[in-house]
Structure formats: structure tokens, C-alpha cells
Design brief:
50% helix; globular; 152 residues; alpha/beta; four-stranded parallel beta sheet; 6 helices
Length: 152
């Protein structure tokens, strides 16, 4: 078993790599933005978006919340869906990439949304959330047990 300091160093190195990757990728991917390039630029990607949307809506069918944390919000693709379904809820949307948050701010115009740029494990929260949403961000955080402990 690796010492905790060694794990923290690897986590920090990976976080820095991920942050730099998305900061660069978000800037250069398309003049239409990361969301367009990821979800709408081809017929196949539009199909993936459609089925991901159907799946998310299905899994949210019995869930009610007032205060949501979204981990790895990216440009706000799923945040739009959440806001539409829960217009009265408050949202705290976190992403490691400042460029993704900038695209998020360009895409999402809601008074009920607060954004943060940081690594989830490094972010201090002063509030409690009754719902946490994450699509494809936790998989990029090496220390899964730390993530689950923090969520709990």
C-alpha cells in the first residue's frame, strides 16, 4: 500500500493534467464550443446525447431536491436538463477547468446557479446538498474512496 503523501501527490499531478487538458481542449475544440463538439457535431453524437438524456430523465423520475451539487458540470449540458426539471432548485456547479466554467456561464443563464472552479476533493463546501449529480467526472478522480467519503 502506498503512503498517503504519495497518493496525494499522484492525485495532484493527475488533477493538474486534467485541468490543463480541458482548459486547452475547451479553447481549441470548436468555435461552437465543447458542448457542440462533444454532443451535436455528428449524427452519432446527437444519438448519444438523445439516449443519455432519456436515461438521465428516467433515473430522475422519482427524485426531488432543492439543493444540488453537480460535480464536473463541463459546459452545462446536463445542468440545462436539471434546471428544466427542477426550476426552483439551487445548483452549485463545480468543474476543474476554468474554460469549461466559462462555456458553462455562456450556456446557462439562471439566478439559481453558482459556479466553482476547483478539484472536487480540494473544494470546501459550507452548505449541504440533498442531491449530487455527476456524469463522467468521478471516473477521472484517482482516489475513489476519498470521493465517496466526501460525498457521504
Amino acid at each position: 500500500m502506498e503512503p498517503k503523501n504519495s497518493l496525494r501527490k499522484k492525485d495532484a499531478q493527475f488533477s493538474n493534467w486534467m485541468r490543463n487538458f480541458y482548459n486547452k481542449k475547451a479553447k481549441m475544440i470548436s468555435d461552437k464550443g465543447y458542448e457542440y463538439a462533444r454532443w451535436f457535431s455528428t449524427k452519432e453524437k446527437r444519438r448519444q446525447h438523445k439516449f443519455s438524456t432519456i436515461s438521465i430523465i428516467y433515473h430522475l423520475r422519482d427524485i426531488n431536491f432543492k439543493n444540488c451539487l453537480e460535480i464536473g458540470c463541463g459546459p452545462g449540458t446536463w445542468t440545462k436538463l436539471l434546471i428544466k426539471k427542477y426550476p426552483q432548485a439551487k445548483f452549485t456547479c463545480l468543474d476543474i477547468s476554468k474554460e469549461m466554467i466559462q462555456q458553462f456561464k455562456n450556456n446557462i443563464k439562471s439566478k439559481n446557479v453558482k459556479t466553482m472552479v476547483n478539484n472536487f476533493l480540494d473544494q470546501e463546501f459550507t452548505e449541504k446538498f440533498d442531491f449530487i449529480f455527476c456524469s463522467r467526472a468521478i471516473e477521472y478522480i484517482p482516489n475513489k474512496s476519498a470521493v465517496l467519503n466526501k460525498i457521504n
